[in-house]
């Protein structure tokens, strides 16, 4: 007689368990990925306090975040460490104008995503977000797995990857990339001289024609000979008349 009671208890327990499971809310689906934030990336990595401060004061950090909000936008950022900034001459950053500070940060940005393996296929000079490649030249070469960077004033290499996905790559460098356009400006090359105007061909005229010149000189010569002959004839006639008289 106890068996049916035990079975009924198990059945009731099973029904209660099923009801509890069905009453639970479904698991929430993962939300959209948080937008990339260059400040958070550098803060999490550590040793980029001065760079973060410079990104904020120049507003370039906000521009980077705005660009990364567009899924079609790509960036590669060479991030100098605090030690890199500390190795600059005292007062270097303070001596720069606000515009020069903006250009300095932009010189560390390449407007495309470049993985470590793709640096070896790049052509030099590399275009940065700063300006033209004459005033702001950046050359990148590789030696095995090492990526070397030169600006004409500074030589350094990538010492580590701070962050990398298919849109943004942040690479650690141990020196501030100093561009010539700020720290050793060069005069712009002279513009090419304009081509000389093409000379127009003079139309041939009777006065310019060699044949006409010859004809004219010949006519003068004939006229002169005729006059001489007439003069001689007159003189001869006068002399002859005088003799007979």
* Mean residue pLDDT: 80
What is the CATH T-level topology of one domain? FAS1 domain
Uncertain stretches of 5 or more adjacent residues = 206-217
Percent of sequence in beta strands:
5-15%
Radius of gyration: 46 Å
Which class of one domain in CATH terms? Mainly Beta
Computed structural class: alpha+beta
State the helicity in percent bands: 40-55%
CATH homologous superfamily annotation of one domain: FAS1 domain
Counting DSSP H or I runs of 4 or more residues, the number of helices is 8
Q: Name the overall outline.
A: globular
Q: Major sheet: order of its strands?
A: 2-1-6-5-4-3
Order of helices and strands: HHHHEHHEEEEEHH
**Which architecture of one domain does the CATH hierarchy give at level 2?**
Roll
Main sheet: strands, sense, barrel = 6 strands, mixed
Keywords: Cell membrane, Glycoprotein, GPI-anchor, Lipoprotein, Membrane, Proteoglycan, Signal
Function: May be a cell surface adhesion protein.
Family: Belongs to the fasciclin-like AGP family.
Protein name: FAS1 domain-containing protein
Describe the 3D structure.
This protein is α+β, with helices and mostly antiparallel strands. It has a domain at 38-179: FAS1 domain, CATH 2.30.180.10. 42% of the residues lie in helices and 14% in strands. It is built from eight helices and six strands, in the order ααααβααβββββαα. A six-stranded mixed beta sheet has the order 2-1-6-5-4-3.
Write the topology of this structure:
Elements: H1 2-23, H2 38-45, H3 49-58, H4 60-68, E1 75-80, H5 82-86, H6 98-106, E2 109-110, E3 139-143, E4 146-150, E5 155-164, E6 168-173, H7 180-183, H8 210-244
Parallel strand pairs: 1-6
Antiparallel strand pairs: 1-2, 3-4, 4-5, 5-6
């Amino acid at each position: 007689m106890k068996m049916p009671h035990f079975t009924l208890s198990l059945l009731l327990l099973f029904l209660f368990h099923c009801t509890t499971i069905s009453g639970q809310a479904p698991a929430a689906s993962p939300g959209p990925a948080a937008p990339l934030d260059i400040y958070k990336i550098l803060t999490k990595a550590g040793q980029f306090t001065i760079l973060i401060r410079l990104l904020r004061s120049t507003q370039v950090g906000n521009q980077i975040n705005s660009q990364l909000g567009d899924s079609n936008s790509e960036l590669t950022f060479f991030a100098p460490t605090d030690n890199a900034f500390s190795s600059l001459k005292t007062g270097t950053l303070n001596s720069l104008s606000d515009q020069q500070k903006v250009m300095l940060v932009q010189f560390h940005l390449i407007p495309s995503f470049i993985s470590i393996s793709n640096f070896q296929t790049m052509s030099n000079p590399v275009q940065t977000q700063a300006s033209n490649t004459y005033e702001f030249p950046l050359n990148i070469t590789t030696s095995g797995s090492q990526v070397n960077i030169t600006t004409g004033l500074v030589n350094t290499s990538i010492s580590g990857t701070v962050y990398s996905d298919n849109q943004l790559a942040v690479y650690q460098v141990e020196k501030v990339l100093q561009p010539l356009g700020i720290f050793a400006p060069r005069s712009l090359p002279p513009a090419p001289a304009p081509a000389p105007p093409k000379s127009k061909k003079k139309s041939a005229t009777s006065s310019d024609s060699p044949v006409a010149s010859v004809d004219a000189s010949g006519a003068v010569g004939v006229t002169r000979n005729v006059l001489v002959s007439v003069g001689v004839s007159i003189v001869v006639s006068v002399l002859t008349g005088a003799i007979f008289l």
